[in-house]
Amino acid sequence: MTTVSEVMTRGARSLRPTDTVVQAAQAMEELNVGVIPVCAGDKLIGMVTDRDIVVRGVAQGLDAKTTTLADVMSSHVRTVREDDDVEDVLDIMGENQIRRMPVVDAQDRLIGILSIGDIAAKDPDVDIDVANSLGNISSPAEPDR
């Protein structure tokens, strides 16, 4: 059994809910990532993705310089713990079409991020599970319209 702590990325950068969409986009560019955890202090309260910025911000005509992350972030976030089994987490990721999950401690403090890429690169025992989960994650969604 491989645990999340063995493959996760520690020290994930986070932003505050009062930070702007521009600041999030700049952090994403700097880090070459598509998601940033949003924390109040050290407690995870949401996640903002590049898609959130586009769909909830740009598409709505909001000013990226003044719109805060609280306005565009996802606040109902699935999380994992360090001692969770990676294969169980892969099932959750596949079922919910999630590519990255924040790792939190018992007080919901952010301690890292687990991505499908982390699992694929660092856990050679789960190749088939990663492929199946990626297939589920990547399956096309039905349009809302």
TrEMBL record:
Q: Which UniProt keywords apply?
A: CBS domain
Record-linked InterPro entries: CBS_dom (IPR000644), CBS_dom_sf (IPR046342), Diverse_CBS-Domain (IPR051257)
- List residues of the CBS domain: 8-64, 73-130
Give the protein's recorded name.
Putative signal-transduction protein with CBS domains
- Name the source organism: Polaromonas naphthalenivorans (strain CJ2)
